[in-house]
Amino acid sequence: GDAREREMDGPKEKEKEKDSVVSPTNSHQTVSDDDEIDYSTKPEFYDSDLDDKDELWVANKRKGRHTDAVLSCPACFTTLCLECQRHEIYVTQYRAMFVVNCEIKDKKVFPRGNQKRKRNKRERMAGQAAEASSQSGEAVRQVCCSVCSTEVGVIDEDEVYHFYDVLPSES
């Protein structure tokens, strides 16, 4: 009988211990950091006109030209292109003449025709981008994000950029 009574008392004692939790600072009142912040002065890094300034900058760069999308790097979200044209057949691909934050890498050749080995999705898309604009055997070079080095497309011999691994957004 005594063992059962002890088992019954055990959970009740644990509940009492939970109710009497001691304050971490041994004080009855905790002061929040928000109480110490002076909201009457604006932070130095705050600019209420920043969105308007950004919109003017983009409008100035485009000079009234239309774009199908604003392209960003899929890895770091850096802006790569403000003016591009979507591919007619491959709707996830874009071509452009003027880019920002892009780095041209080694030469690559994407031969046209049937290849017997299976290619992964990125290789297929790169091949489609190259084939969409190039003639048989035309050399294209890899284009990467200059911030994180993620491959985002290719550039052909006519200096037209073909993006196939980018995040498009409304302009």
TrEMBL record:
Stretches for region Disordered: 1-44, 113-133
PANTHER family: E2F-ASSOCIATED PHOSPHOPROTEIN (PTHR15967)
InterPro entries given in the database record: E2F-assoc_phosphoprotein
Signal peptide location: none
Coiled-coil parts of chain: none
Domain of life: Eukaryota
Official protein name in the record: E2F-associated phosphoprotein
Gene Ontology CC: one annotated term: nucleus
Compositionally skewed regions (Basic and acidic residues) per UniProt: 1-20
